[in-house]
## 1
Amino acid sequence: MPHVTVKAKDGGTFQAYVAMPARTPAPGLVVIQEIFGVNKVMRDLTDSFAAQGYVAICPDIFWRIEPGVDITDQTEAEWQKAFDLFGKFDVDNGVQDLIATLDHVRGMPECTGKAGSVGYCLGGKLAYLMAARSDSDANVSYYGVGLDGMIDEAGAITKPYLSHVAENDGFVPPEAQAKFVPVLEQHPKATVHVYAGQDHAFARVGGKHYDKASADLANGRTRDFLAANLG
């Protein structure tokens, strides 16, 4: 079952990559892509979450623009395409597609009915919005972009939320972090970790800013957080 078809709430369908755990039923986990589509990095992450015991599903959130995007962060042309897709992406529709994906995985016979989300970069922003706008049971953001412009939605968060922030994130400058980090630190359902000296995508294996020690620390915190809240 490498792919499933998900029905969008406003019509149409889109594809999602699925990885199954060794034992079912198991909690579900929506894995939210970066700006490079459902590429090998995201498929490997989805597989790794399945290995941790989740029915892991990674939807194609760019389907409304261009279905099946699968590019890397290795060339300038791919970066340009990724930023073009990011510029065309409708965040509100994206959240609705993620909620449809959440509903889909909860409805799968292999799923216990509990389900959360974890997202990276653009996906980190969307995981924050899943915490604010959906009934997802737990949500994790890795270096989410644009949270400073949506911090007024933090009051709607009622389920556990974990945010990994890169101190020297080139896409989330200090003035942006100053707007959302203190708010989340005071939120009773939120946990924030700031990774000193790290840049954007420090957990992307093979990426320019990959840092194994920080990635291992963040991933361990995510593993414990999900186990505590979805298990």
## 2
Amino acid sequence: MKDQAEHLRNWVRQANNVQTAKTIAVISGKGGVGKSNFSLNFSITLAKKGHSVLLFDMDIGMGNIDILMGNSSRHSIIDFFEHGTPLSDIISKGPDNISVIAGGTGLTKLFELDQSQFDSFLAEFNRLLHQYEYIIFDMGAGINYESSRFMLCVDDLFVVTTPEPTAVMDAYSVMKYLNSVSQSLSLFLICNRVQSEMEGHETIKRLQNALRKFLQKEIIPLGFLPDDKSVSKAVAKQVPFMIDNNGSVVSKALSEIAARYEISDFREGLTMKKNNFLGKLKNYFLSH
């Protein structure tokens, strides 16, 4: 299976004559649903499958990827904006050889750049797009004007929720808002901390039906993660659960979610459809 996947990746790259990272923004309607923990462990899962991954902590003012990894990065994205530190120098190595850019007030600062500074950011980020297969942005909970503009630029949006009614309603509200701005967004759904398979299926079905009925929008369900005690144990140790207990129920479920997404990604890649992340970024940030 791994050899076949690698063959498909190589075929797509050769056909496009260039490797460009798939950009993913991980979002949630409210805090406390495990979004950052998902982002970190999903990145590690992709790395374990042989992909090169950059995890970008965009949780403004509340970035906690470093805490979940149990280490502190020397630099954050704020060093680029305030001190001109090259993005390549800000990147630190995380578990299983993933690359990490620590959070700060990066998204706010990005909107405050003048034309020359923004062009410098685009030039440096363009190099990153050709160094990695996946760039994953761990966004802040909820949504605001700045974050919504950024979300419109990525290839895919992962929405993380839990079965709690408030979390489901907030997730729906975020998707409703984004769909009102752009109906072409690719939305993927992950339900976290489910008590049973039935609860996971019902939560996903509830959101699918709501989007179909009120927004005429299809959302792609990637699956659900069980409420596994190994997660809280790993958080207490400040070790990602995919590393602390790779054989746990939640780790196996996350591996299945990553495999599901890989299949979706290959299908899209084989149609030769590529989103221009940097072009859209420049358009949304400088023309509004």
